[in-house]
Amino acid sequence: MIYDNLENRIPTWFINKKLGQIWAAVDSFSDNYLHIEKETEKAILVRVDTLNKYSMGKKLTIWVPKSVLLTDAQIEEEIRKYEINRKKYIEKKEAAKKEKNENRKTLNVKKIKKGDEGKEAKLLKNGEILTAKIFQINSKNVIIELNGKKLIIKNDTSILGISK
Questions:
Q1: Does 30 score more than 50 pLDDT?
Q2: Model-level pTM?
């Protein structure tokens, strides 16, 4: 059997199960890093050459049963499923962004940015519009003060913005 496209033929679940955290340290792999060392009737011994700062060029070997290797049709199906899920994710994210922008227009607010600490922000919580004081802003979160309590809110979620 010819094992072209070897990195796609070995299922991710199998790699994760066999190599676990060791595999998590490997940045990525391709055919250039996977080599068949030995082949038996039921399995292949695959050498994984790792070239990153965590593994420092170590060679990992793993026996892969031929029964778990994916066929061309299975690989195509996995790619098709991935593309469908990716498209759904992008559509959902775009719809949420559009809704947030529409809410900003309705409330006449602008996007929060660095330097807006101390200003009042409007946010949407369970369909209710609340006003809170911006305490701190970083790249991932905004810390607000609402009713005397400090709350951490992800930048891209319910905060609508500050008054224009």
A1: no
A2: 0.56
